[in-house]
Amino acid sequence: MPRTPYIAANWKMNKTIAEAAEFVDALLPRIAATQCDVVICPSYLALQEVVERRRGTAIRVAAQNMHEEDWGAFTGEVSAPMLGEIEVEAVVLGHSERRQFFNETDEALARKVPAALAAGLEPILCVGESEAARDGGETEEVLERQLQADLSGVEGADLSKVVIAYEPVWAIGTGRTATPEQAQEACAFIRDVVRMRGGAADELRILYGGSVKPANAAELLSKPDVDGALVGGAALDPGDFAGIVEAAG
């Protein structure tokens, strides 16, 4: 069966609760007919507002991070049961900014991904190489290392329940975008790694993230192994984000 396109809006540290409500109200009429899975990833404070505003619509809601433990002395953290209590359905894990600025490790992600699955949350696992690794021909080495480590605690039968976002670090917020061919090559490689680990790779949805815009979305999403997009800057404007959803079909 064909994979349903998956378009996620990662707002990062943007939008107040009021701005989040305004965005959802503006977006909904624009995507009313979509057949895609549309996911919004607000800040923790805006999660419940977006959950309430999206009821009865195509929109799903994801947090931008979570702790691997259900409870404990972890000041400033949020757990999977807390997210589930307010009907959040998914969680972004391992975004390059979490890795770069907050020292998130593959060892931590190896605990977080199965914890999310156990709690009924859909993990959106981010992987990707730096500019130096890309220029040094190490893209596949980096991707395989991250995937093998981050998914080490996930059984083969559960691998297709994880959404994987390929986000080349050199294309995030830089204005540079991987060519459709580069995106396809990396996403196909990711699918092969999952297949070798015994996962139902043909069911796995793999997203591209990195300066996705309405102008380039259709070409990127036309590639056979690119099943959607994790959108940053363009996801802050409801018109631009709706244009990307429309490009996905």
Largest sheet: 8 strands, parallel, barrel
Question: What is the architecture at the second tier of CATH?
Answer: Alpha-Beta Barrel
Low-confidence stretches: none
Structural class: alpha/beta
Please, how many helices?
10
**What name does CATH use for the topology?**
TIM Barrel
User: What do the pLDDT scores average to?
Assistant: 95
Spatial order of the strands forming the largest sheet: 1-2-3-4-5-6-7-8
Percent range for β-strand residues: 5-15%
Estimate nothing, just give the exact number of structural domains: 1
Q: CATH homologous superfamily - what is it? A: Aldolase class I
Helix content: 25-40%
Q: Could you tell me how far the N terminus lies from the C terminus, measured between alpha carbons in angstroms?
A: 16 Å
